[in-house]
Design a protein that fits this description.
Helices cover 69% and strands 0% of the residues. With 224 residues, it is an all-alpha fold. The protein has one domain (32-216).
Protein backbone atom coordinates (compact mmCIF):
# COMPACT_ATOMS: atom_id res chain seq x y z
CA UNK A 1 0.00 0.00 0.00
CA UNK A 2 1.37 3.40 -0.99
CA UNK A 3 2.19 5.93 1.68
CA UNK A 4 -0.52 8.54 2.20
CA UNK A 5 1.80 11.46 1.36
CA UNK A 6 2.26 10.15 -2.17
CA UNK A 7 -1.37 10.89 -3.02
CA UNK A 8 -2.44 14.06 -4.83
CA UNK A 9 -5.83 15.75 -5.13
CA UNK A 10 -6.27 14.10 -8.51
CA UNK A 11 -6.18 10.67 -6.84
CA UNK A 12 -9.35 11.54 -4.92
CA UNK A 13 -11.29 12.82 -7.93
CA UNK A 14 -14.37 10.67 -8.56
CA UNK A 15 -15.08 11.86 -12.10
CA UNK A 16 -13.37 13.19 -15.20
CA UNK A 17 -13.44 16.86 -16.24
CA UNK A 18 -15.48 15.84 -19.28
CA UNK A 19 -18.14 14.23 -17.06
CA UNK A 20 -18.20 17.25 -14.75
CA UNK A 21 -18.75 19.82 -17.49
CA UNK A 22 -21.18 17.57 -19.34
CA UNK A 23 -23.24 17.62 -16.15
CA UNK A 24 -23.62 21.39 -16.47
CA UNK A 25 -24.54 21.08 -20.14
CA UNK A 26 -27.37 18.64 -19.42
CA UNK A 27 -28.45 20.66 -16.39
CA UNK A 28 -28.69 23.91 -18.35
CA UNK A 29 -30.66 22.20 -21.07
CA UNK A 30 -33.14 20.64 -18.64
CA UNK A 31 -33.89 23.77 -16.63
CA UNK A 32 -34.27 26.26 -19.49
CA UNK A 33 -35.56 29.03 -19.29
CA UNK A 34 -34.56 29.32 -15.62
CA UNK A 35 -31.43 31.12 -16.85
CA UNK A 36 -33.58 34.10 -17.81
CA UNK A 37 -35.11 34.23 -14.33
CA UNK A 38 -31.78 34.10 -12.49
CA UNK A 39 -30.33 36.77 -14.78
CA UNK A 40 -33.23 38.97 -13.73
CA UNK A 41 -32.58 38.04 -10.11
CA UNK A 42 -28.99 39.22 -10.46
CA UNK A 43 -30.17 42.55 -11.85
CA UNK A 44 -32.66 42.84 -8.98
CA UNK A 45 -29.83 42.38 -6.47
CA UNK A 46 -27.77 45.13 -8.11
CA UNK A 47 -30.73 47.53 -8.14
CA UNK A 48 -31.60 46.77 -4.51
CA UNK A 49 -27.99 47.35 -3.47
CA UNK A 50 -28.05 50.73 -5.18
CA UNK A 51 -31.22 51.67 -3.33
CA UNK A 52 -29.96 50.45 0.04
CA UNK A 53 -31.79 50.23 3.33
CA UNK A 54 -33.53 47.51 5.32
CA UNK A 55 -36.25 46.90 2.72
CA UNK A 56 -33.65 46.32 0.04
CA UNK A 57 -31.93 43.96 2.46
CA UNK A 58 -35.06 41.81 2.65
CA UNK A 59 -35.32 41.66 -1.13
CA UNK A 60 -31.67 40.72 -1.53
CA UNK A 61 -31.84 38.12 1.22
CA UNK A 62 -34.94 36.56 -0.35
CA UNK A 63 -33.28 36.36 -3.78
CA UNK A 64 -30.08 34.85 -2.39
CA UNK A 65 -31.94 32.39 -0.19
CA UNK A 66 -33.98 31.19 -3.15
CA UNK A 67 -30.84 30.77 -5.26
CA UNK A 68 -29.00 28.79 -2.57
CA UNK A 69 -32.00 26.54 -1.99
CA UNK A 70 -32.37 25.89 -5.72
CA UNK A 71 -28.70 24.98 -6.12
CA UNK A 72 -28.91 22.72 -3.06
CA UNK A 73 -31.81 20.74 -4.48
CA UNK A 74 -31.67 20.97 -8.27
CA UNK A 75 -27.92 20.84 -8.75
CA UNK A 76 -26.21 19.22 -5.77
CA UNK A 77 -28.85 16.74 -4.66
CA UNK A 78 -30.48 15.81 -7.94
CA UNK A 79 -27.50 15.96 -10.32
CA UNK A 80 -24.06 16.39 -8.79
CA UNK A 81 -24.75 13.54 -6.34
CA UNK A 82 -24.94 11.15 -9.31
CA UNK A 83 -21.18 11.53 -9.84
CA UNK A 84 -19.97 12.63 -6.39
CA UNK A 85 -21.27 11.06 -3.16
CA UNK A 86 -20.16 14.14 -1.20
CA UNK A 87 -22.70 16.27 -3.07
CA UNK A 88 -25.44 15.25 -0.63
CA UNK A 89 -23.44 16.99 2.11
CA UNK A 90 -22.92 19.98 -0.18
CA UNK A 91 -26.69 20.11 -0.68
CA UNK A 92 -27.23 20.18 3.08
CA UNK A 93 -24.70 23.00 3.51
CA UNK A 94 -26.32 25.05 0.74
CA UNK A 95 -29.77 24.49 2.26
CA UNK A 96 -28.47 25.66 5.65
CA UNK A 97 -27.10 28.81 4.01
CA UNK A 98 -30.46 29.42 2.35
CA UNK A 99 -32.27 29.11 5.68
CA UNK A 100 -29.73 31.36 7.41
CA UNK A 101 -30.17 34.04 4.74
CA UNK A 102 -33.94 33.82 4.97
CA UNK A 103 -33.96 33.97 8.77
CA UNK A 104 -31.44 36.79 9.10
CA UNK A 105 -32.42 38.93 6.15
CA UNK A 106 -36.09 38.22 5.45
CA UNK A 107 -37.67 37.24 8.76
CA UNK A 108 -35.59 39.36 11.13
CA UNK A 109 -34.65 42.12 8.68
CA UNK A 110 -31.08 42.22 9.96
CA UNK A 111 -29.38 42.61 6.59
CA UNK A 112 -29.15 46.27 5.60
CA UNK A 113 -27.10 48.00 2.93
CA UNK A 114 -25.83 51.54 2.88
CA UNK A 115 -22.60 53.46 3.20
CA UNK A 116 -19.43 51.40 3.71
CA UNK A 117 -15.70 52.08 3.41
CA UNK A 118 -14.78 52.90 -0.20
CA UNK A 119 -12.17 50.15 -0.49
CA UNK A 120 -14.55 47.58 0.98
CA UNK A 121 -17.33 48.72 -1.34
CA UNK A 122 -15.08 48.37 -4.38
CA UNK A 123 -14.06 44.89 -3.27
CA UNK A 124 -17.67 43.86 -2.66
CA UNK A 125 -18.95 45.19 -5.98
CA UNK A 126 -16.00 43.66 -7.79
CA UNK A 127 -16.60 40.21 -6.32
CA UNK A 128 -20.33 40.51 -7.00
CA UNK A 129 -19.72 41.36 -10.67
CA UNK A 130 -17.25 38.47 -10.83
CA UNK A 131 -20.01 36.08 -9.80
CA UNK A 132 -22.77 37.61 -11.90
CA UNK A 133 -20.92 38.33 -15.14
CA UNK A 134 -17.32 37.13 -15.29
CA UNK A 135 -17.58 33.57 -14.01
CA UNK A 136 -20.32 32.57 -16.48
CA UNK A 137 -17.98 33.71 -19.28
CA UNK A 138 -14.82 32.00 -18.04
CA UNK A 139 -15.76 28.50 -19.19
CA UNK A 140 -16.65 29.45 -22.78
CA UNK A 141 -13.61 31.72 -23.04
CA UNK A 142 -11.46 28.82 -21.81
CA UNK A 143 -12.73 26.65 -24.66
CA UNK A 144 -15.79 24.95 -23.18
CA UNK A 145 -19.15 25.01 -24.93
CA UNK A 146 -21.54 27.84 -24.07
CA UNK A 147 -24.08 25.25 -22.96
CA UNK A 148 -21.71 24.37 -20.10
CA UNK A 149 -21.66 27.90 -18.67
CA UNK A 150 -22.08 28.19 -14.90
CA UNK A 151 -24.60 30.88 -13.99
CA UNK A 152 -25.49 32.76 -10.83
CA UNK A 153 -28.45 31.25 -9.03
CA UNK A 154 -28.13 27.95 -10.88
CA UNK A 155 -24.53 26.81 -10.37
CA UNK A 156 -22.75 26.77 -7.01
CA UNK A 157 -19.56 28.68 -7.83
CA UNK A 158 -20.98 31.97 -9.15
CA UNK A 159 -23.77 31.83 -6.56
CA UNK A 160 -21.26 31.54 -3.71
CA UNK A 161 -18.94 34.21 -5.11
CA UNK A 162 -21.74 36.70 -5.79
CA UNK A 163 -23.11 36.10 -2.28
CA UNK A 164 -19.71 36.86 -0.77
CA UNK A 165 -19.66 40.17 -2.62
CA UNK A 166 -23.14 41.06 -1.40
CA UNK A 167 -22.49 40.13 2.23
CA UNK A 168 -19.31 42.20 2.30
CA UNK A 169 -21.47 45.25 1.51
CA UNK A 170 -23.76 44.85 4.55
CA UNK A 171 -23.64 48.26 6.22
CA UNK A 172 -24.07 47.41 9.90
CA UNK A 173 -21.47 44.69 10.56
CA UNK A 174 -19.75 41.65 9.09
CA UNK A 175 -22.09 38.67 9.02
CA UNK A 176 -19.59 35.89 9.71
CA UNK A 177 -22.29 33.25 10.15
CA UNK A 178 -23.54 33.95 6.62
CA UNK A 179 -20.03 34.13 5.15
CA UNK A 180 -18.94 30.73 6.47
CA UNK A 181 -20.57 28.41 3.91
CA UNK A 182 -19.69 30.50 0.81
CA UNK A 183 -16.08 30.78 1.99
CA UNK A 184 -15.84 27.04 2.59
CA UNK A 185 -17.42 26.26 -0.75
CA UNK A 186 -14.84 28.41 -2.55
CA UNK A 187 -12.13 26.30 -0.95
CA UNK A 188 -13.86 23.04 -1.90
CA UNK A 189 -14.50 24.00 -5.50
CA UNK A 190 -10.99 25.41 -5.84
CA UNK A 191 -9.54 22.06 -4.78
CA UNK A 192 -11.87 20.18 -7.14
CA UNK A 193 -11.03 22.35 -10.14
CA UNK A 194 -7.33 22.22 -9.30
CA UNK A 195 -7.48 18.42 -9.30
CA UNK A 196 -9.13 18.57 -12.74
CA UNK A 197 -6.47 20.94 -14.05
CA UNK A 198 -9.09 23.62 -14.79
CA UNK A 199 -7.65 27.02 -15.80
CA UNK A 200 -10.13 28.83 -13.53
CA UNK A 201 -9.31 26.81 -10.40
CA UNK A 202 -7.98 29.83 -8.52
CA UNK A 203 -10.87 32.22 -9.27
CA UNK A 204 -13.25 31.31 -6.43
CA UNK A 205 -10.52 30.84 -3.78
CA UNK A 206 -8.94 34.20 -4.65
CA UNK A 207 -12.34 35.90 -4.46
CA UNK A 208 -12.89 34.27 -1.07
CA UNK A 209 -9.49 35.44 0.17
CA UNK A 210 -10.22 38.99 -0.95
CA UNK A 211 -13.57 38.99 0.86
CA UNK A 212 -12.04 37.42 3.95
CA UNK A 213 -9.31 40.06 4.11
CA UNK A 214 -11.83 42.88 3.59
CA UNK A 215 -14.19 41.40 6.19
CA UNK A 216 -11.38 41.21 8.75
CA UNK A 217 -10.54 44.83 8.00
CA UNK A 218 -14.17 45.80 8.55
CA UNK A 219 -14.37 43.86 11.81
CA UNK A 220 -11.37 45.77 13.15
CA UNK A 221 -12.67 49.16 12.03
CA UNK A 222 -16.35 48.90 13.10
CA UNK A 223 -16.87 49.69 16.82
CA UNK A 224 -18.54 46.91 18.86
Amino acid sequence: MSEWWTYTLHDFLLFSPRTYYRLFELYNREIWPAQVLTSGAGVAVLLALRRGGARAGRVIAAVLAGCWLWVAWAFHFQRYATINWAATYFAAAFAIEALALAWTGVVRGRLAFGAVDRAVRRAGIGVLILGLVVQPLIGPLAGRHWAQAELFGLAPDPTAVATLGVLLLASDRVRWALLAVPLLWCAVTGATLWAMGAPDAAVAPLAALLVLAAAIRRTRSIPG
